[in-house]
Write a structure and sequence with these properties.
299 residues, two-stranded antiparallel sheet
């Protein structure tokens, strides 16, 4: 299983004005239709699972390039625009922010009944991916939004976001099913964002022994474990040696992508808060018309 990456962003408050939300939906649909026509529906999932491409898409759609609001706004706009055309595009978007995220299982079951996909398996993938990012990776971020995107081929992607009260930032997690092998053994290919110090990452391959140990402990009779934890055996040498300490450390792997500078995409249509400039609605509408005309000609 490959988790495509993480993205850390400053926490932004406020809402998307109606005039921008409506345009975001139209532009998002046009972008997705173009990708489907040129590369196929599964390419949409791959790109949404790329944190740099996703951030760049949010910038093009008029959100502030570094804002945490890109996640909920972009996914909300795409869900609103794509789901009415799901039968044509063969792409479905479930979940959302807060209480809407809790609707994901029911939405997946309904999609499964319409497409013949195993809805129960998709629900399991949705719940496990959320559990891993919320529990197996203890980095101080608690999930508050979860979106599950899938195609009629059964491939899927997850875009979910957590919030840290300590650092006043959010972190976005991306998943992609294309190379699914394990949910708990090196599921990610990169971590992108500010280093907030050591974390407990039970999905790291170096934590395999710890995972096995936890499972072994869970299977032991409680009485035996209570006896064991009261024992303390110290080494007979005074100096602290390598074998006495777990020297493995956590690192950050940067995702190499041609979309590694989302800031430059913010100059396409500006940002709703005026950075780098206010959204020029005339230019925005011209972009939508250009893409829709290209789709019409392609069909």
């Amino acid at each position: 299983m490959k988790k495509s990456g993480f993205a850390d962003m400053p926490l932004h408050y406020g809402h998307v004005p109606a005039w921008l939300a409506e345009r975001m939906a139209r532009l998002g649909l046009a972008v997705v239709e173009n990708i489907v026509l040129d590369y196929g529906k599964d390419e949409v999932l791959r790109r949404l699972s790329d944190p740099f491409w996703f951030q760049s898409l949010g910038s093009v759609m008029g959100m502030d390039w570094h804002s945490s609001g890109i996640t909920t706004s972009v996914m909300g706009a795409l869900k609103k625009a794509i789901n009415p055309h799901s039968r044509e595009l063969d792409i479905y978007i479930c979940g959302g922010k807060g209480r809407h995220s809790k609707n994901t299982p029911q939405e997946l079951i309904e999609i499964g009944s319409r497409t013949g996909l195993d809805g129960n398996y998709l629900v399991k993938c949705s719940k496990v991916s959320a559990k891993v990012d919320n529990t197996a990776i203890q980095d101080g971020f608690q999930l508050y939004t979860h979106n599950f995107i899938l195609s009629d081929t059964g491939k899927w992607a997850v875009v979910q976001q957590g919030m840290s009260d300590a650092s006043n930032t959010t972190r976005r997690y991306h998943w992609h099913s294309e190379q699914l092998t394990s949910f708990v053994d090196d599921p990610h290919t990169s971590i992108y964002g500010k280093n907030n110090g050591l974390i407990l990452n039970m999905t790291d391959s170096a934590a395999a022994a710890s995972r096995n140990g936890v499972m072994q402990i869970a299977a032991e009779p409680p009485e035996r474990m209570l006896k064991e934890i009261s024992k303390l055996v110290m080494p007979n040498h005074h100096d602290v040696r390598a074998k006495d300490v777990d020297l493995k450390r956590l690192g950050t792997v940067l995702w190499l992508s041609r979309f590694n500078d989302p800031a430059r995409f913010s100059f396409a249509h500006g940002g709703k808060d005026g950075h780098p400039f206010p959204v020029p609605t005339k230019v925005y509408d011209e972009t939508i018309c250009t893409l829709q005309m290209a789709i019409h000609k392609a069909k």
